[in-house]
Structures are given as structure tokens and as C-alpha cells.
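Re: that chain you flagged

S.,

Sorry for the slow reply, it's been a week of failed gels. I finally had a moment to sit down with the sequence you sent. For the record, here it is as I used it:
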Amino acid sequence: MENFILNLSYLIASVGFIVGLKMLGSPKTARKGNLIAAFGMAMAILATLFVYPHTANLNVPTFTYILILVAIVIGTIIGWGIAVKVEMTKMPELVSFFNGMGGATAALIGLLEFHHNIGNPGKMFMIIAGLIIGSISFSGSMIAWGKLSGKLRKPFRLPNYNIINTLLAIAILGIGAYMIIAEVSNPLYIYGLFALALFYGIMFVLPIGGADMPVVISLLNSFTGLAAAFGGFLYNNMAMLTGGILVGSAGTILTIAMTKAMNRSLSAVIFGAFGEGAVEGSGSKIQGSIKEAGPSDAAILLNYANKVIIVPGYGLAVAQAQHVLHELEELLTKKGIDVKYAIHPVAGRMPGHMNVLLAEANVDYDKLIDMDDINNEFKNTDVVLVVGANDVVNPAAKNDPSSPIYGMPILNVEEAKNIIVNKRSMKPGYAGIENELFYNPKTSMLFGDAKAALTKVVQELKGM
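Prediction finished late last night. Pasting the C-alpha cells below so you have them in one place:
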């Protein structure tokens, strides 16, 4: 009977993971999907704690349950507190931090289970693989967290970095293979491997530029899922295995999608250090002049438009201007103007950053249109309002073969009748190059903090 209850619980948990992940694919159902997946995880935890010991004939001391309960309560309080207080601008580093905790858990499983499985090559492979991947995910995620939070602003790249990292990876794989084949029991090996994997994770992420952070986050997420899957194999835990496979495969697919959206190979992301000033100044010199506009000029253009498309970028998140932008959108809609948001896959610092940001401001999900679906609409748009976006709207990606972003799919903003770009200054984006769009005769530059500038535009519109 216990086996039936355990298997049924794991089945329900696995279905919850699958359904939840499917629902996360749409902003409309993402919140509900997250709750369903969380319910599945709770089901798996309860089954593992209270049903599995009976099926495995384990005599678990009461004190162990107390420790587990205390750990769950402490973790819940800390996690809940952090999640509730985090600002939308800090969401990318929060995701990276939480992902790192998952990798750390997989690594700790390897450290704890090593001594119990010496002489069992199959299980030892699962332990070593989970330890290596989990450690890389943990330390790499912590470096990504530091970069995203601004604590690691300066680029860091050792001479012959690629050679050093390759040799380090070979050493890690070689030591791991030797431990499995030779049935090594010396604990110095497992802790040494743990330390090397942690160091490799640091070296793996440290040189990667800010522009590639969405790719790095999704890649490290897939690492954590893969490490968890090895834990599921080790314990023959179907829920853990299913969850790990889903996270790993979803992270891998998302990584591929991100690199495609940036027109960059994964190897270029890992070895190229794109976005840390390495390419600054490359590309053709732009000829032309800047046309500056004030809040009243922008308000007039918007007020007499029939169709407006808003392009959000990371500058919107920095200024925390999502609420005033939503107010602007509602004001235009009440005037009978068709308003939509154009979402580029890599806008912001993590996959889906703009969707999360705008959802927090209660923007209607139906107004959030992906790049592929909205690009054909720009030519029939009266005004495009670009808020804090840069490289994702740079026409050089289509017409300048010398540009480092050449070939990157972008939003076809330059096809609109009128363009308003809100930026703090003329400072280049992550790619370190000037934006042709800013010199377009149809473009008006609305300089200033997004929240302050858009607030003035809203006030002007209300007076019309």
C-alpha cells in the first residue's frame, strides 16, 4: 500500500511539474502554473518524508524529522522574505541566486553520498556528475549574481583564459573518471574535485559580459536541472528525476533560443566576453545629427497617433518606470489609440525580464507581443516609443556587416512613421556601439530618467 501511495504521489508531483512548466509559457497562466508546480513539489517532499521511509524500511529518528522541519521553516521564511521585498530591477540576480542554491544542494548530495557508494561504479558516476555540475552551477550563479547586482562591474580576463579553462575542465573530468574507475575512497579526492569544480564555475562566468547574462542565466539553470536529475537517478526518485529533466531541458531550449535571438553561438557567448567593452568603437562611423524633443513634443506626437508601439528595455527597469508607463498606455487607450508593447527576447537582464516587469505593473497580457509577431506592424505604426532599449532596436544589425551585432534579429522600429527614444544619455548599449536609430530623421530623443520623463509626458497628455 505504501508503494502505491508513494508512486501515486510522485506521479501527481510530476504531472504538476509538467503542467506548471507548460503554463509558464504564457504570461496569462504563469502565476497559476507556478502555483501548480509548487503544489507538485510540496507533494513530492511530503511523500519523500513520510511515505518513502516505510517503503524502504527505514527507521528515521524523530529528531531527524525535527531538524528537517526546522530547516524547511527557516528556508521558507528566508525565501519568502527575499521574494516579497525584491524590486523588479533586482529580479534577474534573485533568479541567479536561487538557481545557485539549487546547484549547491546537488553538490552537497554528492559530498554526503560519496562515502556510502564506494565500489558501486553506477551510483558513483551519478554522484560525481551531480557534484561537478552542481558546483559549477553554484559558483557560476554567484558570479552572475555579482555581475547583475553591480558588485563585479570591472571586466576580468586572464591571459590565455580559454586555454586555462580548457585544461581545468580536462583535469576535472579526468579526476572524476579516475575516482570512478579506481574506486577511490580517499575523501581528499572528492573535496579536491569539489574545489576545482567551484573554481571552474567562477572562471567560466567571470569573463562573460553583461550583454550575455540572459544566456548565462538560462545555461546555468539547465546545469542545475541536470545536476538534480542525476540526484533523481541516484535515489531512484521519480519526482526528482522528472523535475531535474524538465528544468534541464527547458533551460537548454531557452539557451538555444537566447543565442538565436542574439545571432551568437553558445561558444561565442562563453569565449567572446561580448558586452564588456571588447568591441567598443567597432562598426561604421554614423553620420548625422540628433533631434532632441521635450515632454510636450512627445505628448503631441502620441496624442495625434492612431497606433502606438512601446518598446521596453533595461532602462525601464532601472528607472522603475513600469507603473507610469502603464498609466501612459491607459491614457492613450482611453483616447482611442491602439497601443501594444513589442517584446524582444533578450531585452533586459534575464529571459522574460520585460514580461515580468510589465506584469508587475498590471499591464494587460494581450498587449505584450513577441518580436516575431509584431515586427510586421511597425510599418503601419504612427509612433514608436522606445524606453530604455538600445541594441535590440539598432538597425546596424541588418545593414552594417562590420557591426558586432550584425545578423542579430531586432525590432523593426526604424520602419515606423515617427520614433521617440527615451534615454538618459547617448551612452552606447552593452555592445559598446552607437545606435543608427538615434540619428534617423524620424527619431526624436527624449533625454532623462524614464520615470521622470514619462511622468511629464503623462501630465502633458492630460492637459490636451
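What I noticed first: Residues 93-278 form one domain.

Talk soon,
D.
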